[in-house]
Amino acid sequence: MVSQAVLATLEELVACFDELEDPRSEINRKHPLASVVAISLMAVLAGADGPTSIHRWAKSLEENLPSVLDLPNGIPSRDVIRRVLCALKPEAFQECFTDWISRLIGGTDDGSQRHVAIDGKTLRGSSDSNRGIGPLHLVSAWASEKGLTLAQVPTDQKSNEITAIPQLLRLIDLKKVIITIDAMGTQKKIAQQIVDGKGDYILALKANHEKTNAAVINYVEEQVSRDFSETRHQQLEDTPKKPSHGRNESRIYIQFEVPKEFPDRSLWAGLATIGLVVYTFVKGGKEHTEIRYYLSSLPLDVALFARCVRSHWGIENTCHWSLDVTYNEDGLKTRKRQATENMAWLRRFTLSLLKQHPGKMSLVMKRKSCGWNWNFMLQVLGIKGT
Description:
- A nine-stranded mixed sheet has the order 3-2-1-4-5-9-8-7-6, sandwiched between helices.
- Mean pLDDT is 87; it is low at 1-8.
- It has two domains: 4-101 and 331-381, no CATH class; 102-320, Transposase Inhibitor Protein From Tn5, Chain A, domain 1 (Alpha-Beta Complex), CATH 3.90.350.
- The protein contains 16 helices and nine strands.
- 36% of the residues are buried.
- It has helices at 4-7, 11-14, 33-45, 51-59, 65-68, 78-87, 90-95, 98-105, 161-169, 188-196, 210-225, 302-313, 315-327, 337-356, 363-372, 374-381, and strands at residues 114-123, 136-143, 148-155, 177-181, 200-205, 233-238, 249-257, 273-283, 286-296.
């Protein structure tokens, strides 16, 4: 049995949702919105993946929850939970977590910059062929040092990331932040938005900006032939001591200042340096080399450039991979768009909470432990039991 003394501390959790606008009609408000949302959050943390399992989790605590949460009509049914998740405005739902996220991410009083990676993930199970609806694609802002999702914006297709990224950037504080984005988000207006927000950027460059890409390649080849003797530059080599995934690989990071005469320099707000990564690996007994180019507003500091580029690549392993392994996200079949987005946010936020929790347990085991042990769940939530 769960002690009332421990459960009473959940008032701190419920308070986060007190200002959330209730989208339901007056006649359908038999269960307070804040209590339904708090139950949904805790249930997802404990292993639930949809309205049915959220209801069943709450039902298993039927003797305790009504005494510590405002539940005048008992445990909300599956349909109540489903209707709430379908009706809540995702933007307003995310805003409820702003203060909580601020506490988790901490300040930057030492003057250092935080790294935030912008990247997208397709929820493959959210498509509905009968209604002609493709899978939902979510673009997220990921604070790499903290392992924390700051915000997310939905699109219907990956190609719409260009319009989603500006919306996402408006949801986060860009001051003292280094934003990294893949080539699809390398847009002049996005660079300007980041600079206007007092942030910095590292934008991957590919052939989607043919003129700028060609100018960078030509300039790099010219400087390589002269051993970079005519430009200020820094270089850093990263060769792992052990083979990665069974293959030998190395990366050379080079960063150099953008010359005044560089084409299109004035079109990219704050453009200060160009970076490249020479990636060499052996596969099938043959050596392969890939070169990746970047535009950046950062001053010359190749160690910082390399750290941010590596951290951006890490989002696949630290966030997207975890969502699929720990939450089976690609296998989930929620198809109501707002419910899909709200559940996706609960998964990302609870994943962030699990990552903040110290200890050597795997994320899967931590999540299971939240379902087994109330004190452990309260620790993960950052609530002190009594």
